[in-house]
Specification:
The chain is mainly β. Helix content is 6%, strand content 65%. It has one domain: Porin, CATH 2.40.160.
């Protein structure tokens, strides 16, 4: 983590020009991501997440690119008694639910305020791709795990704030709709909202 912070400081320090063109034709971003689940498997928020992205401007207000993000969710469920479906037995225990998700997408973004020397640049985008998810439930010394891939769609709203020609801060909100089905854990999606903040570096 200390190395990541140092890299970000160095990148910001070496960029010194004005913000007339915002982040240029090609840019990369790196940021911290908070996940808020909206699925039947887990309800605990994730403060352990991140996002990295590359974008290329193909028109004055349009870019395409790729992105990858990750979130590590965890939820503690207090002690309770669980009956077997056939009624032949029961177990009393507390449990921990864990979910690790990695969506990988191709993206397109539209910028509403590009050009004119303006510091604020709002945008809207959509990402389509695949998501890997590792799910687990731990109780006492035992555990149950299920790993899956599925389709993911990620609509996004965001805002860039220029620091110079080639650096900016960004803030974004993304809805992660992942069609990942698990017969073991009895769900057919792993949706969550992601809030991200970070730095953009361009040329």
């Amino acid at each position: 983590m200390k190395k990541l912070i140092l890299i970000v400081i160095v990148f910001v320090g070496v960029q010194s020009s004005s913000y007339a063109q915002m982040v240029g034709k090609d840019w990369m971003s790196i940021g911290w991501e908070v996940g808020i689940p909206s699925n039947d498997f887990i309800s605990g928020e994730s403060y352990s997440g991140g996002k990295i992205e590359y974008q290329r401007m193909i028109k004055p207000q349009l870019s395409v690119g790729v992105s990858g993000s990750w979130n590590s969710f965890q939820e503690y469920v207090p002690k309770s008694t669980y009956q077997k479906p056939d009624g032949s037995g029961a177990i009393t225990t507390d449990i921990v639910r864990e979910l690790y998700s990695v969506p990988l997408t191709l993206n397109m973004k539209y910028y509403f305020n590009r050009g004119g020397g303006k510091k604020l640049l709002p945008y809207a985008g959509i990402g389509l791709g695949a998501q890997y998810s590792a799910e687990a439930i731990y109780f006492n010394i035992y555990g149950i795990e299920d790993n899956n891939w599925g389709f993911v769609a990620r609509p996004e709203l965001g805002l860039l704030y220029a620091l110079s020609d080639h650096t900016a801060l960004y803030l974004s909100a993304t809805y992660n709709s992942a069609s990942i089905k698990s017969d073991l854990f009895e769900h057919d999606n792993l949706n969550h909202t992601a809030l991200s903040i970070g730095f953009v570096f361009g040329q």
